[in-house]
Amino acid sequence: MQKKWWHGKIAYQIYPKSFMDSNGDGIGDLKGIMSRLPYLKHLGVDIIWISPIYVSPFVDQGYDVADYQNIDPIFGSMADFDELLAKTKALGMDIIMDLVVNHCSSEHQWFKKACADLNSKEAGYFYFVKGRNGGAPDNLRSYFGGSVWDKIPGHENEDLYYLHYFAKQQPDLNWSNPALREEIYKMVNWWLDKGIAGFRIDAIHSVMKDLSFPGLPADDIDGLCHASKMNAKMFSKLGIYLSELRDRTFKPHDAFTVGEAFSPSKEVLEAFIGDDGYFSTLFDLSCREVIEAAPSYMEYKKLTVKQFRDCIFGTQQMYNGIGMSAPIIENHDEPRGVSYFMPPYLNNAEGAKAIATVLMLLRGIPFIYQGQEIGMTNTRFDSIDEHEDLFAHDEYNKAKARGWSDADALAICNEHGRDNARTPMLWDDSENAGFTTGKPWMKLHQDHKTLNVKAQYHDENSVFNYYRALIALRKSKEHFDCLTWGAFEPVSVNDAVIAYKRLGESETILVVVNTAKEPLVYETEAEGTLLLSCNEASCTGRTLTLGCGGGAVLSFKK
């Protein structure tokens, strides 16, 4: 595997609406991010991924882009972005942007021109398709519920539909059109020429469509089939577009790119993230794939520790010798990892340290999501009206339609909802958690008085400083080679233990985490050096003792 500039880096995702507000309007902005750059540097971050800040109506929180080359005024201006970029670089960090090109906003000029003139070049940028048998062209279900098809605005009396895998205000872009792809490449190169280091590529698994629109067997009582199943069917053909995107944009700039792509098989992995792959890396979304195999929140099942471990280990083993994954436990589309993947008795600081030990030493480029580094848990929403996410409202309505009570329908949204990760960052114990001097755009976490950066920053036993220690260990001169390029090897103990080795040329590093209530006594193969531990953990000779949530990292020299 060729060594790249981004190997050994630590990435951090910022959800800008909820990170830091500088002007008191209750919404995070670019100047707010600027004010917290020293914090990110202190944590040990190298690459900052900023979720969409483009002009948008915010139907889907910015993932409905109305102008790809302008900053939405709620975040600031392009001058603010240029200043942010310069200050980030001055601190030795890089910025990557969100690239949202499976779809755009219905407010984008392309879509407006397309609807105004069905013979225009812009009409070819979208999927405008005739209906079938008096209805929609096929039976795919949108990610946000209901059909992926709606009548073209201004042409409601005609048998013509446009395609949207997400909200109806997010028309899918027609990648089969070369003119559309040229527009996209021009825009991508414009940002890279500006000086950003690369992109996180949103929903790229959806850009390849079967243009015959055959539909698929229904997977629920509504007679529809989830669009993700068509994505899986078309996955092997994505390379037609992705190789061109790489060659025309990413490769000439030596950009760092991380793709959001579900279900990559070992057979296609080399093409995706090998030395000449479409992307630098892919997010490990294996846990979400297992959970989201069910059609709705009502059928979602939280993973056991064993299932969580097996998903992570499966990805790590598949990537061995091919490339690097991007391990994550949460992002803007998921509940908080410590609440979702740890047992209830570890939905706390001890659990946050335990899961951090697992995540941060895996092979790949680990991504930390804002607030994860202080152990933020799920937020308690008291009403569906406190949820901003379209998906949560759709799931709530589906549950109510099936006879669920208000309380039960709300409970599944609270447990599985994406808004858990979108509540404001907790900076201190003031009224609005130091996020804003105004009214926060979204509900604050219920524990913000005690769970915040200020409370943890100088506490050597805090979750925050444990993340700093893990990052420092990854970057240390002595262990960098092993923890960056060393192979991954699973270690079997029991169903409550997550253990693995990183195999370097001159050392082996063993990571062991106990999630059971009962203490674990584990005999290592040889006597090693304890590099780092959390919660109740000790090592005497070859005997490792871990309490509930205990984690240990040991080095064995060869």
From TrEMBL:
Pfam families attached to this UniProt entry: Alpha-amylase
InterPro entries: GH, GH13_cat_dom, O16G_dom_2
Record's protein name: Alpha-glucosidase
Family to which this protein belongs: Belongs to the glycosyl hydrolase 13 family.
GO biological process: oligosaccharide catabolic process
CDD domains per the UniProt record, alphabetical: AmyAc_SI_OligoGlu_DGase (cd11333)
Alphabetized GO MF terms: alpha-amylase activity
Residue stretches making up the Glycosyl hydrolase family 13 catalytic domain: 13-422
Source organism: Candidatus Avisuccinivibrio stercorigallinarum
Keywords, alphabetical: Glycosidase, Hydrolase
